[in-house]
Amino acid sequence: MSPVERARSAAAGWAARTVEERAALLRPLAGRLADDAERLADLIHDENGKPRSEAMTHDVVASIVLTRWVTEAAPRALATRSVATPGQPHRRATVVRRPYGVVVAITPWNIPLMIPLSSVLPALLAGNVVVLKPSELTPNTGAALAAHLDALGLPEGVFQLVQGDGAVGAALVDAQPDKVVFTGSVPTGRRVMAACARFPIPVTLELGGVDALIVRADADLELAASAIAWGATFNGGQACCSVERVLVHVDVYGKLLARVTEKLGRIDPRADLGPAVDDRQRGVWSTHLADARARGLVAAGGDWLGPRTLAPTLVAGEGVLDCVAWREETFGPIVAAAPYRSDDEAVALHDGTPYGLTASVFGRDVSAATALARRLRAGAVAVNEVAATVYAHPQLPWGGVGASGFGRSHGEAGLLDLTWPQVIDTPRLPHEPKPLWGYPYDDVQERALLAVGHAFARPAPRTVLRAARAVGRLLTHRPRL
Ligand code: NAD
Question: Do the domain assignments include residue 472?
Fold first, then answer.
């Protein structure tokens, strides 16, 4: 039996449980992760290369917080809701959240515990059964997560781990699950979506970005420079939401870049900087660096400090907008900076790529910075903070627009994303009253319904009374077919 078939045989039993029952079974995971935190952080650090403190915070602690919140929030978020339907007051409509069935989750290596967990846990809570394929670069972290889930005593087939590369992921999609949740690069996301389109299977795509940080003229430059230094280099720059582009108001451009250069130079490569995860990733950094160098735009850094460790690198100067590092995701510790003159120009430059995952705006006038934030085409925008931090708060929906994908993980939206809404429409009265519309069609019916339309368009005693009279005439006039 294939993993998708095995999952399918467990789907009905799991969906039949209440969300409270599922949450009660899954909630102890938070304690298990906390008890195993030191070993998990070591494992992630060894396997992925990121600094241990990032493994501990971005993966382990974030996973504990997510587990706690989502297992508590799920019953409320997924509860059946009544919806008023004024057009038929004699009936009761409810919207029930139904699980898709078999969910295949395919995840990347860069946040190898938290991303798989944030795909798997909401799916299980929503009543789906899940097959997880973690990245081939972080199989041990995937296996550690699976061991913790297995230890919770989930029924056979409700959660399964499948290890392997892209071909294994493609085979899981070919097996026609009921929903695919994919986190990874834009090119692979396109392939996964095309594969899903054949059946079709709904797909959530959490893809990459070239996220920007905007520094307004009134910004606290010290704060902004620190944010750029961290935002561009944490996780070795290998985060979907890392700062890849900086837009600086022309009045403070020189001052800001001087501070950024100074701060990038003070990052300790041994303690704070992760290496490229593999040679393929190193190759991407190398290409983007060579392109900037050929244009004479490497303003700071640019040296290899180890086989796969690149010094934090600033790319700036005339022509930076043509650099590969400006236009495409580097997924490394390279940040490109350009000046802008007005908020309108900042918006145009920000939105001038197909991506839209996160953005950050820095300015002392928080209202003006917030007004700018609201104009940007990005799934999450933070003011006076690096937007990557939004990911740490599982209450907030996470996801992008444009080439950065669609659908959401985290937040109520993330739970709803793993369900489909089913309307259940039932009678309130013991006997169904005569219907207002149906055969035979005639003028009396048409006029009565138009009167109802007028009452909806301009609710007022006069229009409502007219509609009530017309409906009364209709009910007495009409024989039912
Ligand atoms: P990737 O696209 O190379 O691989 C992601 C996953 O897809 C892996 O498990 C891989 O084995 C699998 N895969 C590859 N080809 C496949 C196919 N044809 N069918 C099915 N599965 C296939 O990405 P990566 O290098 O692992 O991760 C880095 C990318 O992920 C970056 O672009 C980053 O921005 C993005 N990312 C996005 C988010 C987000 O929340 N939006 C979070 C983390 C990473």
Answer: yes
Q: Which of 121, 104, 120 is nearest to 68 (CA)?
A: 121
Ligand 1, CB cutoff 6 Å, lining residues: 106-111, 115, 133, 135-136, 165-166, 169-170, 173, 183-185, 188, 191-192, 206-208, 240, 329, 331, 357, 400, 405
- Helix pair 139-150, 114-125: axis angle to 10 deg: 30
Kindly state whether residues 99 and 225 are assigned to the same domain.
no
For every residue of 79-136, DSSP letters joined together read --EEE--TT-TTEEEEEEEEE-SEEEEE--SSSTTHHHHHHHHHHHHTT-EEEEE--T
Q: Give, using CA atoms, the residue closest to atom 32 of ligand 1.
A: 185
Shared-domain flag, residues 180 and 323: no
Best probe residue, ligand 1, of 54, 104, 106 (max atoms within 8 Å of C-beta): 106
34 contact partners, CB below 8 Å, separation of at least 6: 64
255 and 363 assigned to the same domain: yes
Q: How many CB atoms lie within 10 A of CB 478?
A: 19
Task: Report, as residue numbers or ranges, the catalytic residues.
Answer: 206, 240
Asked whether 408 and 398 are in contact (CB, 8 A), the reply is: yes
| Strand 245-249 to 405-406 pairing | unpaired
- The residue contributing the CA closest to ligand 1 atom 37 is 207
Residue 429 maps to a domain = no
Task: Give the bridge partners for 334, in sequence order.
Answer: 313
- The residue whose CA is least distant from atom 16 of ligand 1 is 166
76 and 225 inside one domain:
no
Q: Could you tell me if 131 and 234 lie in one domain?
A: no
Q: What is the pTM of this model?
A: 0.96
Where in the sequence is the domain holding 251, given as residue range(s)? 212-394
CB atoms within 10 A of CB 426: 8
CA of 443 to the centre of ligand 1 (A): 60
Locate 53 and state its tokens: 């403190």
pLDDT tens digits along 316-350 = 999 999 999 999 999 999 999 999 999 999 999 99
Ligand 1 nearest-atom number relative to CA 240: 34
Q: Is residue 404 part of a domain?
A: no
Q: Which of 195, 94, 171, 66 is nearest to 428 (CA)?
A: 94
Ligand 1 centroid distance, CA of 186 (Å): 8
Tell me the per-residue pLDDT of 58-98, one tens digit each, with 9 for 90 and over.
999 999 999 999 999 999 999 999 999 988 889 999 999 99
Residue 399 has pLDDT above 90, yes or no: yes
The closest of 178, 128, 132 to 15, measured between CA atoms, is 128
135 CA distance to ligand 1 middle (Å):
8
Tell me the residue type at 43: L
Quick check: 418 pLDDT over 80? yes
Tokens (6 digits) for 289: 């660096």
Q: Is 163 helix (H, G, I), strand (E, B) or coil?
A: coil
